[in-house]
Amino acid sequence: MFLARTNILMRAYIILFTCLVAPAAALPAAEQQPVRPLSTDRPDQTESAHTVPKGWFQVESNLVSFSRTYGMSEQAQDTSLCDFISLAILPWVKAPTATTGFGNNAWEYGLTINQELDIGGGWELGSSIFLAMAVTDERQRYFEPAFTLAIGRDLTEKLAFYVETYQGWLNSEERYLQSSFDGGLTYLVTPDLKFDVGMNWFFNGNQTLNPFVGVSFRF
Predict the structure, then answer these.
(1) Helix, strand, or coil here: 109?
(2) Do you find a cis peptide bond into 96, omega within 30 degrees of 0?
(3) What is the C-alpha separation between 204 and 178, in angstroms, rounded?
(4) Which residues are paired to 71 by β-bridges?
(5) Which residues are registered as beta bridge partners of 108?
(6) Domain ranges of the chain
(7) What are the φ and ψ backbone dihedral angles of 59, each rounded to 5 degrees?
(8) Rounded to whole angstroms, how far apart are CA atoms 147 and 167?
(9) How far apart are CA 47 and CA 150, in angstroms?
(10) Cβ proximity of 122 and 138 under 8 Å
């Protein structure tokens, strides 16, 4: 009970900071020097191919997110290639530092390859390839590949939409294909503050609906 109350208080403090303090802090930073447009990993599952500008701090957070699983089948240095495509290759390692009960107490590692492509007419195409060596609850190591493909378009200077698909070869009690179809809207309030709303629909493996509202900002 104490842990649950602590988590609720922490979330309340994060939301308060996100809504009141951080957006105000973002405004003076925008006036210091020109920077590239705000690029975020959220709200889709496809990772951005751009890093945060030097000297800036960026926060991306859910304000509201709800998931309901209704069945189980049986079965994170960017390089510019040219003016219209960006590529990022991100190796990662997860160390077993979580408190008992919150992690699997195992080293995991992998590689993420992200790309963004300007296909003209205001349309952008993005994808991520996730290659991970994960560990099951039975301490068995296995290869876990996944792939995302997202397409988005600016509707106005501030409003944009995207649709996306995710495919992952995951492992629970046995190997299974997890798929999702996602979509949402983003609204750029200022060059450094953006809100989003959308839904992820997972099917095949875990059948889950995940509506969400979120915010991203930098300062």
Answers:
(1) strand
(2) no
(3) 6
(4) none
(5) 94
(6) 2-218
(7) -120, 135
(8) 5
(9) 10
(10) no
Q: Does residue 71 contact residue 202 with C-beta atoms inside 8 Å?
A: no
The whole-model pTM stands at: 0.74
Q: What is the pLDDT of residues 150-179, one digit of tens each?
A: 999 999 999 999 999 999 999 988 899 999
**Tokens 């992952």 found at:** 168
* Annotation: CATH topology of 2-218: Porin (2.40.160)
* Contact (Cβ atoms closer than 8 angstroms) between residue 210 and residue 199: yes
**Are 147 and 170 contacting, i.e. CB atoms less than 8 angstroms apart?**
no
Residue 12: pLDDT band with limits 50, 70, 90: very low
Q: What share of the chain is helix, strand, coil (3-state, %, to 5)?
A: 15, 55, 30
Place of tokens 């590239």: 36
CA 157 vs CA 95, 188, 198: distances in Å: 41, 8, 19
Residues 53, 37: Cα–Cα separation, whole Å: 10
